[in-house]
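Morning!

This is the sequence you dropped in the shared folder:
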Amino acid sequence: MQLMVLLKKLNGQWKIISKTASSKASNQHGKRILFIVSSHNFHGDSKIRAGTNFSELVNAYEEFKKAGYTVDFMSPDGGAISLAYIDTSKPMHKKYVYDEQFMNALEFTKSPSEITPKNYRAVHYVGGSNAMYTHATWKCVNSASREACQRQGIK
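The structure's back. Tokens below.
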């Protein structure tokens, strides 16, 4: 039997939000993947909206979760990110748009100071129209990638 709990920090204290029990064996192995997303909301200094490509996000997320990985999201500013190209006529999009735990993780992405690069087996850069404004020049991203590669990534 496997017991799973969903925790959320409320008013500075961890609270159990839900509990689930299952007799099905878990494939979770404790290895982590870091998804790097952009906090950039506009193209450059314009008023044209930019966002993280939802397909790139959910398709990779689904595959890593199926393989038993824990996925963390990091953005330059931490917190909520802009999403783009969501099409709820696609089953995968619809599944994750209505997944409260997944959307909560995107609302509260980790900041670079909350990440320890050595804890990750691999880094996945999620594209979108906003990625070009941060990924290439962001020093913390490059160090996280380098550390994951030195450990030879996913096995």
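Headline: Strands lie at 2-10, 13-22, 32-36, 52-53, 70-74, 83-84, 120-125.

More detail when I'm at my desk.
O.
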